Amino acid sequence: MEADSSDQITSPLLPTSTRSDDEVDVENSPIKQVALTVSTSDDPTLPVLTFRMWFLGTLSCILLSFLNQFFWYRTEPLSITAISAQIAVVPLGQLMAAKITDRVFLRGTRWEFTLNPGPFNVKEHVLITIFANSGAGTVYAIHIVTAVKVFYQKHISFSVSLIVVITTQVLGFGWAGIYRRYLVEPAAMWWPANLVQVSLFRALHEKDEREKGGVSRTQFFVIAFICSFAYYIFPGYLFQMLTSISWICWLFPQSVLVQQLGSGLHGLGIAAVGLDWSSISSYLGSPLASPWFATANVAVGFFIIMYVVTPISYWCNIYDAKVFPIFSEDLFTGSGQIYNISSIIDSSFHFDNDAYQRQGHLHLSTFFVMTYGVGFAALSATVVHVILFHGREIWEQSKSSFNEKEKDIHTKLMSKYRQVPEWWFWCILVGNVTLTIFACEYYNEQLQLPWWGVILACVIAIFFTLPIGIITAITNQTPGLNIITEYIIGYIYPGYPVANMCFKVYGYISMTQAITFLQDFKLGHYMKIPPRTMFMAQVVGTLIAAIVYLSTAWWLMETIPDICDQSSDSVWTCPGDHVFYDASVVWGLIGPRKMFGDQGLYGAVNWFFLGGAIAPMLVWAAAKAFPGQDWIRLVNMPILIGACGQMPPATAVNYTSWIILGFLSGFVVFRYRPEVWQRYNYVLSGALDAGLAFMGVLLYLCLGLENIGIEWWGNNLDGCPYASCPSAPGVVVQGCPVMS
What's the pLDDT score for residue 455? Predict the structure, then answer.
């Protein structure tokens, strides 16, 4: 579709436009999805740093930070996204614009200001959402504090915890500043997830004319929001089996084999389907925001790993696979029982090798081993793919800034604003690294990580930020660094679990934060937010969120008895922190050498590194050999290989339902009804997220706090009780039939 076709969005984002020449009037982004979604107009006179923005932004950040951390420790954690705040602040902003005095204070002085500069505008709204983004999700470094205080029962002070939390959250600004020119300004780096929020902003602020016989985007959003809100009471409370309808299990209720094949939560998920938006979008993001080529890569990778590699490995009994479940993230003994981790930790919370030799090697399910393998392969594939397919662009951008002819319309419109000086980012980077080294050296008894570990973690983060940023900006999928960081420090510095956790957080989360900051920068780029104002909102929001998250977690750990005790009837069982703690034991105490090295059972998995490096070379060679076949260049090996990187904890039904919706949206509707896709696709995604979030909070506050539930077969999540059973003869596991 050409940029000036009838499918282009022509309604202005703002009341007035600064476009002054005919060339700009017809110019648009070369990326079709961006051209159909993002406005090419701007009004630089709109007030941005207003009292409304500060008040609502700070309030949103504090509330989301508190609620997300509060819910995080519960058995069924609930994540409240920024879209909830994005919706809720609109009437509040409009109310403040209508009721607060417009009196000008200190008139005639350099400090002149007003609390009400006029109508609530979209740029204020964007900055409030940036604040809210800081409070959405979780602060990963809180895992360290929880593991040390609750699981290891060791001392860590609030001040040291605050240093760790703040430095891990803010360190990513350094990498983001270094790579802005590669990941924000180029039109090819289009960050698909941002288009959902752009569409939502436009639906909430633009005067959209309703087509005859149709509905406006605002009306469509309201309808979809109400439907999503009302519907979630079924999968969220009344009929929880909608999360995973594994109907094949119903046909063979006594068959271990069939339930292994059909279970959407504990098996391969053949024919399983999920009718719950939270399970569809929880791990891979919204399928409506994923470009079709990325969805197709994920689908192919998922099919190969889940339906070819895993069944062959399991039924060929590789690594004694049949002794364990076909799909599980648990840690096992050689006889198929759950491994007693506490038995291999001595009184000083170091690795007890004698106890380990008595209990025997740690075993993993074959699928879990394969996920580690594809994690290794995805990392090497990411580096090689970016070098082969984007190396020349990176080199050209390193030599010089963009020429005027290479800038798209959005970069041209943003050029009128004062940019953030690069030295600001360098100051944050140097200050954070210095503070981190000081904390690790001065409080080494609490953190265990030596100074060189901080430097090495930063080297890993800065090396991978660019290639992973490129993958994310193009495909909306982000390969993780958690495996490789655990692997490296586990080999170099085994026996120190807190050091392993700190290294993982500084090496992995600083990169993740950099990706988040760059994505926010691109959102500001699309919405024409002054860069310095955007930078300020990100920094302040991140600091507020870090303090609130830690304070909330500290309060809960100090006031709730037996928090994170899974053997009690308490709802405060901390499932995510248990996984983090187990990983620190496996990679920090036992160490990768005893699992994937010469002393371990799974040394062959290291060959995945080589396979991942070779795979993009084959695609690159094919693209060169057949230049007329454009589809070859759409084969993205980092995404294809790493498709199952979210599994576990993600399950088969999360993927199958996500792929189906991604196909319907990104291929069918986008190709055959582009005008419908342009008008409603991203608005629908935002409405589904918002309706789910509001009903989820309401259900928890009204029913979850009092543990009021309904006992009936429709609330049996999967209906496949034998899916987690082993299939080897003679293995005795509680609740499972003994195979003969």
Answer: 93
* Per-residue buried b or exposed e for 16-54, using 16+ beta carbons within 10 Å of the residue's own CB: eeebeeeebeebbbebbbbbbbbbbbbbeebbbbbbbbb
Burial of 526 (0-12, 13-18, 19+ CB in 10 A): buried
DSSP structure class, residue 703: I
Q: In which band, very low, low, confident or very high, does the pLDDT at 503 lie, cut at 50, 70 and 90?
A: very high
Q: What is the Cα gyration radius of the chain?
A: 26
pLDDT tens-digit series, residues 415-464? 888 888 888 999 999 999 999 999 888 888 888 889 999 999 999 988 88
Q: Look up residue 438 and give its amino acid.
A: F
Looking at the DSSP bridge assignments, the partners of residue 104 are 114
pLDDT in tens, 95-122: 888 888 778 787 777 777 788 888 888 8
**pLDDT greater than 80 at residue 305:** yes
Report the pLDDT value the prediction gives residue 401, as an integer from 0 to 100.
39
Over residues 42-75, the pLDDT tens digits come to 888 888 888 899 999 999 999 888 888 887 887 6
3-state secondary structure 95-152: HHHHHCCCCEECCCCCCCEECCCCCCCHHHHHHHHHHHHHHCCCCCCHHHHHHHHHHC
Please state whether the predicted TM-score (pTM) of the whole model is above 0.85. Answer: no
Maximum Cα interatomic distance, the chain, rounded to a whole number of Å: 91
Is the sign of the CA dihedral 304, 285, 523, 181 positive or negative? negative
3-state DSSP assignment of residue 481: coil
Give yes or no for a contact between 738 and 724, defined as CB atoms under 8 angstroms apart: no
Q: What is the 3-state secondary structure (H, E, C) of 587-640?
A: HHHHCCHHHHCCCCCCHHHHHHHHHHHHHHHHHHHHHHHCCCCHHHHHCCHHHH
Q: First CA to last CA across the chain, in angstroms? A: 62
How far apart CA 120 and CA 102 sit, in angstroms, is: 13
* Structure letter (DSSP) for residue 735: T
Residue 319: burial class (beta carbons within 10 Å; 0-12, 13-18, 19+): buried
Q: Residue 436 corresponds to which tokens in the numbers above?
A: 């981190």
Residue 692 and residue 703 in contact, taking contact as beta carbons nearer than 8 Å? no
Q: Are 235 and 242 in contact (CB under 8 A)?
A: yes
Estimate to the nearest angstrom the gap between the alpha carbon of 79 and the chain centroid: 12
Spatial separation of the C-alpha atoms in residues 695 and 137, rounded to whole Å: 17
Question: How far apart are the C-alpha atoms of 47 and 71, rounded to whole Å?
Answer: 36
Could you tell me the CA-to-CA distances from 11 to 102, 200, 208, 209 in Å, in that order? 30, 14, 8, 9
CA angle 165, 166, 172 (to 5 degrees): 105
In the three-class reduction of DSSP (H, G, I as helix; E, B as strand; rest coil), residue 402 is classed as coil
